[in-house]
Amino acid sequence: MALPPLFDSLALPMVAAPLFIVSTPELVIAQCKSGIVGSFPALNAREAEGEPIMLEAWLKQITEALERHNQDNPDRPAAPFAVNQIVHRSNQRLERDLEICARWKVPIWITSLGARPEVNEAAHSCGGIALHDVINDRFARKAIDKGADGLIAVAAGAGGHAGAQSPFALIREIRAWFDGPLLLSGAIATGEALLAAQAVGADLGYAGSAFIAAREANAQDAYKQMIVGGGASDIVTSSLFTGVSGNYLRQSISNAGLDPDALPGADASSMNFSEGRSKPKAWKEIWGAGQGIGAITDVLPAAEVIARIGAEYAAARARLLAVSGPFAGQGASA
Ligand SMILES: Cc1cc2nc3c(=O)[nH]c(=O)nc-3n(C[C@H](O)[C@H](O)[C@H](O)COP(=O)(O)O)c2cc1C
């Protein structure tokens, strides 16, 4: 099945993942202007009591910036943007945020931590599409049953809440019955990985950690430097911080006075988004990141990160198409 037409303006088959605390309107605007879907969690837009609603202000800023860009660059239109809704009973803002996003006609709605028909209906009410994030085939089936239009398969190695399954197995199982929009998440930080996501059967790659060290990202300097200096072995998987298994930077766990090699587990009932985060330290001091951070070697504007990934993608594609040697043409003759 073809991707919905709203993806036609993409310069690369890529969606930038929403990052709790880290995603800002400036980051989203830069991502969309560079031709990939930019996104942010609605919960990142937070006002103090009695102040004007920040989510409205962010949606206005993003919408107007992208409209201006499109007027000035009709030959290079911006990609659409997405807003992430945490569909968890502890998110007390959900209903309000759905109403605001529908009013601003948000084109892409990303839902995580719960599949609910009324959230998909809110997306559809303004002409948007809903993509639900899943870690296995069972949750994928449930999400589509409840009315999601597409799926984000979160495989092993992804930053933040991550799955445990190999991307090969996960995409294969979902593609066996689902021919709608399918995104692959987990350690995609290079053009080669993006091309591989398509090769295994995903339509688009979904990348988060690649943008934590972007100039426009709201991450402390030390966090950005830990990404720049880190690699796959610096990532620790634990359920302690939010009640759900996730990937974090080892050094940030040690800096918080904990032993990253001896963390106790925690169960999902401890998850709480009413304060916007699940436990006092999660995300703010215990920093999330995925196994793909070895590809991030500098703090750069998002446009440069995307330009690098684009160049790698084109080169990898050309290299594969030009392949010669023992396996060239193997598929065709088999
Ligand atoms: C610091 C951080 C915060 C995240 N916050 C969210 C979030 O608020 N909502 C969400 O749906 N996913 C969140 N994610 C998960 C990403 O959406 C995505 O699945 C992941 O970053 C992809 O793997 P990668 O980081 O290896 O590219 C977060 C990931 C990280 C690293």
Listing every helix as H and every strand as E from the N terminus to the C terminus, the arrangement reads EHEHEHEHEHEEHEHEHEEHHH
- The CATH topology of the domain at 8-219 is given as TIM Barrel
Q: What is the correct CATH architecture of the domain at 8-219?
A: Alpha-Beta Barrel
Number of strands: 11
Name the CATH superfamily assignment of the domain at 8-219. Answer: Aldolase class I
Per DSSP, the total helix count is 11
CATH top level label of the domain at 8-219: Alpha Beta
Secondary-structure class: alpha/beta
Q: How would a textbook summarize the main sheet?
A: 8 strands, parallel
* Rg, alpha carbons: 19 Å
Read across the widest sheet, the strand sequence of neighbours is 1-9-8-6-5-4-3-2
Which ligands occur here?
A: flavin mononucleotide
Mean pLDDT over the residues: 93
GO molecular function: nitronate monooxygenase activity
Family: Belongs to the nitronate monooxygenase family. NMO class I subfamily.
Protein name: Nitronate monooxygenase
Keywords: Flavoprotein, FMN, Monooxygenase, Oxidoreductase
